[in-house]
Amino acid sequence: MYYKSPSSPRPYLYYTPDKLSESKGRIHNATLYSRGEVDGFYYDFALSTPFQDAILTTVNYNNTLSFLRLGIDGNLRIHTFYDKANSNDGFQVTFTLFSRDSGWESECQLPERCGRFGLCEDNQCVACPLPNGLMGWSRDCQPVKSSSCGSKKFYYYKLEGVDHYMSKHTSGIGPMNEDDCRRKCSGDCKCLGYFYNKDTSKCWIAYDLHTLTRVGNSTHLGYIKAPK
């Protein structure tokens, strides 16, 4: 799944179904189907790929009238008709890919989970990471504006234990050292910051910031441009 931004020369990959491919290759097509009654009571949703099948979720009523929708927020959901539902249209959300309950992927992996800027942990936006520290997060949180051209006009402030949403499912650039990663961002006027993994020596150049994820490993570093 890709996030397309006018600021970036190419779309950001923010999700790939590793559970279904098991590093055997890229999935080019998948089929969503209902397995019908299981044990005379439950109905399963399964996703079939050339590599394997996986159960997405289970409901306790007939799920044959369902559809899969990619929402404007970047989340993937299954909607299933239930004739006893209280809603006007009778459809209920029976599966959400990015959810604390699904077990598939955290909401923190959604590019715009925290709006224009924010630090996400345990599916929640927990801080606004600004040059003077971690402030309380709100929808007003946004990166400080800086001139991204000319090294004398900006500096980088450091965030430890963070990932950009593109870091999890892409291999990054490199291996390279941290200084070379910095130079790639400094030499690109559109770059807003860079992310570096000291364990793998991989580099990610960010043209958008949006949602950053707090991780437990302090070797995952983020450097954000700010005006001098």
UniProtKB/TrEMBL annotation:
Q: Which UniProt keywords apply?
A: Signal
Its domain of life reads Eukaryota
**Name of the protein this chain belongs to:** Apple domain-containing protein
Q: Does the keyword Ribosomal protein apply?
A: no
- Every Apple domain range: 175-205
Taxonomy, top ranks, is: Eukaryota, Viridiplantae, Streptophyta, Embryophyta, Tracheophyta
What PANTHER family does the record tag this protein with? G-TYPE LECTIN S-RECEPTOR-LIKE SERINE/THREONINE-PROTEIN KINASE SD2-5 (PTHR47976), RECEPTOR-LIKE SERINE_THREONINE-PROTEIN KINASE (PTHR47976:SF60)
* Entry annotated with the keyword Signal: yes
The cross-references to Pfam families, in alphabetical order and at most eight, read:
PAN_2
